[in-house]
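User: Need the bound-state model for adenosine-5'-diphosphate:
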Amino acid sequence: MPTRNILVLNSGSSSIKFSIYQATETERTKLFEGALDGIGSGSAAGKFWIKSWVPEKGGQPGDATKLVDETPTVPDLATGFSLVAGALEKRSLPHPDAIGHRMVCGGPTVTENQFITPELIDEMERYTAFAPLHTPAAIYIMCEAAKLFPGVPNFVCLDSYFHRYLPEVTRHLPIPAEYSAMGVRRFGAHGISYESIVQALQPNVPARLIVAHLGNGASISAIRDGIGIDTSMGLTPTGGIISGTRTGDIDPGVLLFILRKLADTAPDTNTAADQLEKIASKKSGLLGLSQLDNDMRALRQAIGEDNAHARLAVDEFVYVLRKFIGGYIAVLGGLDMLVFTGGIGENDTATRAEVCAGLECFGLILDLERNKQRGEATISTQGSPVTIRVIPPAEDLIIVEHVCRLLQ
Ligand code: ADP
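Assistant: Bound-state model below.
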């Protein structure tokens, strides 16, 4: 394979992340990375940065330099993408030979990572309701990237791809058949992160593995012999364990109660449904419980100041997570390894300690000294029957791998 520059684009409802890798037959080298956060947050400033890993003259490989560090106001996604596109051009970053796009879920008919065509976009657009906060933004960025770099092939990489082997009992949802026939089922999310953890564990992937991806969005998966067999998120990323702003699994009656309340004042059903979606996805979870913030760092600080709501929010987050871990141990028939990943999983040592406390009966024995480390580490004791590890996800690298494979 000739040397190629691969641009990875990863967009959410309020952020655009990107990176540029140089890929040769055998090596993948990160050249640039950047992110724009805070899109659509009113008059509040967002955060925009770009780092370069290309060594400066006399510099060491691995030393990153900051090329951009700004706090722009970004009212919408279109402004956000033009800011990113402008920076890509202005900074003369390498022209991409191919572009990989992260997509949470392409719907029931788009289940493979593949080359993006207008027909594929039309097909994925039919299922925006399956990841309403992510899919419209991802499709917008795919279309804009195609205009910005005409002739450059674009590929979609799906989070749901990792979960493609979910057995029928976890994939199928207990709803009337007519809705299942519309494609409503468990797709799961964070699949690219799970794939990167399994890859990082090669060639010794434990037979019975649980990975907890704890970021602003949080999920957990049971993985047997490297294959995902259960995962907490469902049709959409709103289900599962508690996330920063999402409910996670909740009695459907609660949603119906809120919907009926909203219907009292909303002009029509669709408006009420949109309002409910915002409540369940953007105002609940750690934010709703704490009435303060969705960010774990802010909650830990508030707990230090004896904020009872913040304490309850984190206690509930941990409690639900522990219940899922117990359930997945049952699903897997025991456990060989638990991996923490994502911003909270990698950095919040207190969450890891609180999750593991009391799980000794399952053979998970945390080493409190080792747990003080941040980033990649083994944090269980030497003799712990179950290994507990922290592994940062490498999602962009997985997307680059898929793009290279598809280019061939
Ligand atoms: P996402 O990619 O889903 O937006 P991340 O994986 O970046 O989220 O994780 C964000 C979460 O990680 C936030 O709740 C943040 O507070 C938490 N986090 C990041 N760094 C730390 C830290 N040093 N200590 C505690 N929590 C942290």
